[in-house]
Design a protein that fits this description.
The structure is a single chain. The strands form four sheets. Strands 8-12-13-20-19-18-17-16 form an eight-stranded mixed β-sheet, sandwiched between helices. The protein has helices at 2-21, 37-49, 96-103, 152-157, 159-165, 167-189, 230-238, 276-295, 318-326, 336-345, 356-367, 421-437, 448-455, 468-475; strands at residues 58-70, 73-80, 83-90, 110-115, 117-119, 125-128, 131-136, 193-194, 200-201, 213-216, 221-225, 243-251, 263-272, 299-302, 305-308, 314-317, 376-382, 398-406, 409-416, 461-467. It folds into two domains: 2-141, OB fold (Dihydrolipoamide Acetyltransferase, E2P) (Beta Barrel); 164-313 and 374-483, 2-Layer Sandwich (BirA Bifunctional Protein, domain 2). It has 14 helices and 20 strands.
Length: 493
């Protein structure tokens, strides 16, 4: 296959040379389309309603996907973001320069066309070529003669080819944009202020994750890519902005699978004078708003399931649910070895879990998450798993935290935020001790500057982090995060 491709490339380079010899710029900048392919179709409808055979001349442009020579006519298909349309160049309507240019065209080239829109005898919407302009010469051929890109690795590594060959991928990109637009619109209508916080941070705190490390030459210091936006957004609550949110990339040095990518997008929001009950209501209304505005219904397919996003979502108490599904009451298993033995007795492999919190996370993942198909809030977590959440008024060993699950995936994590600086310092210090004891496990970090901010006083606050990539997966019925992240991280070849 390689010699064949090399021959194609050499042929195209020869055509490029000929274009330059003829004084034709193969990469000009001076063509302005007046109509995309969809506009052409709409114009044709208007023209036919007026009982006219052809429209006035339009300017359109796109990538060539097919060239068909039929006698004294050449049919050329072009593709733009809106769709595809056919061009027709007849010998008796084009000049010699255009005829010569057509001979130098290849599939993959970008061209601009000037001419009227009409319908052929075979009822095909078509632009008559009065004038044709080369806009970009393609040196390399499109994959598999353009008919579709099948190799998964090639699809992800050369996403531009995927966008050309698979229109569904282009639609995912555009629908993702619509989802983020609706999310932002919802938050703005609630009065939230959108902000930006640092991506390069001195302390990778605000979450339990291994960070990526970098180095800043001018500052002569190590910095990290942020693992969360939480602590900076809460600083803004301290500063008096009562409703704040950020949509942005986070970076976590973790595994890659169908639900995880090392860089991913979240929306985090914080609201003064709210608790986790208020945040639960906001989250379910947010998802419902986006799904209904995009799909016109609250019920949409995901894999083999029908998901119903209409509020209110089901609320399940974590402790009670674990007792029912596993027989384990974690309040009776405060000792690490006791919890490990009980989990081993019900068939859970605990060899990779070193801490009590790590064991609990494994227990929840094994026994609860797979069954949480419909939108569900799992509420009230053990203190040991939640260093940034406020204690429950009813039980000091429980915090006011919930996680949202849909189709067995975690889609959000939220707290009534801890605003007691003394308690927060103690918990951070405990996290540091656990990080030293269990360096393989993900732990939060002590951020002294955040503690200083908290010591100036933060009002009662409810916060949430929502995974936008997983949200897009669910709404667009995509089984892998790599389908909704345009350029996912991949292993080296």
């Amino acid at each position: 296959m390689e010699p064949e491709i090399n021959a194609i490339i050499q042929s195209r380079l020869k055509k490029l040379e000929i274009l330059n010899e003829k004084g034709i710029d193969p990469y000009p900048t001076d063509f302005k389309p007046t109509h995309n392919t969809m506009d052409c179709l709409n114009l044709l409808d208007e023209t036919e309603k007026k009982d006219l055979e052809k429209s006035n001349d339009i300017h359109s442009a796109g990538r060539i996907t097919a060239i068909r020579k039929m006698g004294k006519a050449v049919f050329i298909d072009i593709l733009d973001e809106a769709g595809k349309i056919q061009l027709l160049a007849r010998n008796n309507t084009i000049d010699d320069a255009t005829k010569e240019l057509i001979e130098l065209l290849d599939i993959g080239d970008w061209v601009g066309v000037i001419g009227p829109v009409f319908r052929t005898r075979r009822n095909e919407p078509t632009v008559q070529v009065n004038s044709l302009k080369m806009l970009a010469k393609s040196i390399k051929p499109l994959p598999e003669k353009w008919h579709g890109l099948k190799n998964v690795e090639t699809r992800y590594r050369q996403r531009y080819l995927d966008l050309i060959a698979n229109r569904d991928v282009l639609n995912i990109v555009k629908q993702r944009d619509s989802i983020v637009f609706e999310l932002r619109k919802f938050m703005k209508e609630l009065g939230f202020v959108e902000v930006d916080t640092p991506i390069l941070v001195p302390i990778p705190a605000g979450g339990m994750a291994h960070p990526f490390k970098t180095y800043h030459n001018a500052l002569d210091r190590e910095l990290y890519l942020r693992i969360a936006t939480e602590l900076y957004l809460k600083r803004m609550i301290v500063g008096g902005i009562e409703k704040v949110f950020e949509i942005g990339r986070l970076f976590r040095n973790e595994g890659i699978d169908s639900n995880h990518n090392p860089e991913f997008t979240t929306m985090e929001s914080y609201e003064a004078y709210a608790d986790y009950n208020d945040v639960m209501e906001m989250v379910e209304n947010l998802f419902a708003h986006i799904v209904f505005n995009l799909k016109g219904t609250y019920e949409i397919p995901y894999g083999e399931n029908k998901l119903n996003f209409k509020p209110p979502w089901k609320r399940i108490n974590l402790r009670q649910s674990l007792i029912e599904k596993s027989g384990i009451d974690y309040e009776e298993c405060s000792d690490l070895e006791v919890l490990k033995d009980k989990m081993s007795n019900i068939g859970i492999d605990v060899r990779n879990q070193l801490s009590w919190a790590g064991l609990m996370d494994k227990l929840i993942s094994e026994k609860l998450e797979p069954d949480l198909i419909q939108p569900t809030f799992l509420i009230d977590y053990p203190l040991e798993m939640s260093p940034l959440a406020k204690r429950s008024k009813d039980n000091p060993n429980i915090v006011e935290r919930f996680e949202g699950f849909i189709a067995g995936m975690e889609v959000c994590n939220a707290f009534t935020e801890l605003n007691d600086p003394v308690d927060q310092r103690t918990r951070f210090e405990n996290q540091e001790k656990l990080r030293e004891e269990f360096p393989e496990e993900e732990r939060d970090r002590l951020d002294e500057d955040f503690l200083v901010a908290l010591e100036h006083g933060m009002p009662p606050t409810g916060g949430v982090g929502i995974g936008i990539d997983r949200m897009v997966m669910l709404i667009l019925n995509q089984p892998s995060i790599r389908e909704v992240i345009t350029f996912p991280q991949l292993r080296s070849l």
